[in-house]
């Protein structure tokens, strides 16, 4: 590992990634890199998926955390490590620290879902809940590190961690040596900087594309010089970073060909597609590469593309919502809003048309009071299931021909 002067940024090189690869071999899963025939047909590219969601903690973060832990001297190991994280880094660090007999403390903000708190505690870490944001948790973790003499292991702003993450690219290019491009999610930048350092050393002509959620375009803004705003509720919380590190930014700037932004609808569609086609569960960040590929088909057409499914830790209720919303966008689920007269037979005549079109009714909601319609009018919302968009549109057209004021309640893009 090359340490620069204190005033300069730390760095690492391919030799560090190769050393990390040897160091962690057998301690993490060498996850498969497999061609997806269906996604290749859908995208026009030859698509290879790296299933990092099959790590024990369901994310690539184990690699960097383990590499950093193995490089600690014995006295620091005995004292213990600490990190602030509400996600995959917390679990990866806690799991590997326990395996090495190193005490681990994880500071998590109060907004962390309880399932993630309990999963991290289950790996043997001491959990400290502090603050309502990552920044507050991080500041408290740094205070605790100083008070207790603990070593802070950062999720991405650490050359040992980034070198460990680079082993993903080593494995991908061992499996498919002639990849034309890697499409990699970017949050703090540890995964991209590590993989780019390795990939460009192994295959100098390979193209490197980064992906960020449109709600958190922090690295995109930093490297393009554009003014951006980062914030909001994104499905890809694993890459929802407001302040990426200067260390990773410098490496990404050197190796990147571009950074693409993906919408929430694109992320949701990619999560759903991976479950339907590959029968694999990924979180929003893990689907970002596929979202970028499908959103830019012409750019990648004919290329041999590697995607990293970097994590699979998604709340089951959220996953259910994503799948249902994807059905709605495809036209298979819908909510139709109709204005009816409040008189006998009004609803019956509407329901009969649903039956004629063989569209299944799931729920019916009547609203008589809280509406701006006249007293004899009512609003009816009907949630329904069709076999495809064409069948649904046929029903809507016939309802409108029959004199009903019908509109579909749309999802946000």
TrEMBL record:
<feature type="domain" description="ACT">
    <location>
        <begin position="335"/>
        <end position="413"/>
    </location>
</feature>
<dbReference type="InterPro" id="IPR045865">
    <property type="entry name" value="ACT-like_dom_sf"/>
</dbReference>
<dbReference type="InterPro" id="IPR001926">
    <property type="entry name" value="TrpB-like_PALP"/>
</dbReference>
<protein>
    <submittedName>
        <fullName>Threonine ammonia-lyase</fullName>
        <ecNumber>4.3.1.19</ecNumber>
    </submittedName>
</protein>
<comment type="similarity">
    <text>Belongs to the serine/threonine dehydratase family.</text>
</comment>
<keyword id="KW-0663">Pyridoxal phosphate</keyword>
<dbReference type="GO" id="GO:0004794">
    <property type="term" value="F:threonine deaminase activity"/>
</dbReference>
<dbReference type="InterPro" id="IPR002912">
    <property type="entry name" value="ACT_dom"/>
</dbReference>
<dbReference type="InterPro" id="IPR044561">
    <property type="entry name" value="ACT_ThrD-II-like"/>
</dbReference>
<keyword id="KW-0456">Lyase</keyword>
<dbReference type="InterPro" id="IPR005789">
    <property type="entry name" value="Thr_deHydtase_catblc"/>
</dbReference>
<dbReference type="Pfam" id="PF00291">
    <property type="entry name" value="PALP"/>
</dbReference>
<dbReference type="InterPro" id="IPR036052">
    <property type="entry name" value="TrpB-like_PALP_sf"/>
</dbReference>
<dbReference type="InterPro" id="IPR050147">
    <property type="entry name" value="Ser/Thr_Dehydratase"/>
</dbReference>
């Amino acid at each position: 590992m090359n340490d620069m002067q204190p005033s300069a940024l730390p760095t690492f090189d391919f030799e560090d990634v190769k050393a990390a690869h040897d160091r962690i071999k057998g301690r993490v899963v060498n996850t498969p890199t497999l061609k997806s025939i269906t996604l290749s047909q859908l995208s026009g590219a030859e698509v290879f998926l790296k299933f990092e969601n099959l790590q024990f903690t369901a994310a690539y973060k184990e690699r960097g955390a383990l590499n950093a832990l193995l490089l600690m001297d014995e006295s620091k190991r005995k004292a213990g490590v600490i990190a602030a994280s509400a996600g995959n880094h917390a679990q990866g660090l806690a799991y590997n620290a326990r395996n090495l007999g190193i005490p681990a403390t994880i500071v998590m903000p109060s907004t962390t879902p309880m399932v993630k708190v309990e999963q991290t505690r289950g790996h043997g870490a001491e959990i400290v809940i502090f603050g309502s944001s990552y920044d507050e948790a991080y500041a408290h973790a740094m205070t605790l590190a100083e008070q207790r003499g603990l070593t802070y292991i950062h999720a991405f702003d650490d050359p040992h961690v980034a070198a460990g993450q680079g082993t993903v690219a080593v494995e991908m290019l061992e499996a498919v040596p002639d990849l034309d491009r890697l499409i990699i999610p970017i949050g703090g930048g540890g995964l991209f900087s590590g993989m780019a350092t390795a990939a460009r050393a192994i295959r100098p002509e390979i193209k490197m594309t980064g992906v960020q959620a449109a709600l958190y375009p922090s690295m995109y803004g930093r490297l393009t010089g554009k003014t951006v705003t980062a914030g909001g509720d994104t499905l890809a919380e694993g890459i929802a970073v407001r302040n990426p590190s200067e260390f990773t930014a410098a490496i990404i700037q050197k190796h990147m060909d571009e950074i693409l932004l993906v919408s929430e609808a694109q992320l949701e569609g990619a999560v759903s597609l991976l479950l339907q086609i590959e029968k694999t569960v990924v979180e929003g960040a893990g689907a970002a590469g596929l979202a970028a590929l499908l959103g830019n088909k012409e750019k990648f057409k004919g290329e041999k593309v590697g995607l990293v499914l970097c994590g699979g830790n998604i709340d089951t209720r959220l996953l259910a919502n994503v799948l249902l919303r994807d059905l709605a966008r495809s036209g298979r689920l819908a909510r139709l809003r109709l204005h009816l007269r409040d008189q006998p037979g009004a609803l019956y005549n509407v329901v009969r048309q649903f039956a004629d079109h063989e569209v299944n009714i799931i729920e019916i909601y009547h609203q008589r009071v809280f509406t701006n319609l006249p007293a004899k009018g009512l609003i009816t919302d009907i949630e329904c299931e069709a076999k495809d968009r064409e069948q649904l549109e046929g029903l809507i057209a016939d309802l409108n021909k029959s004199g009903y004021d019908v509109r579909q309640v749309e999802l946000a893009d």
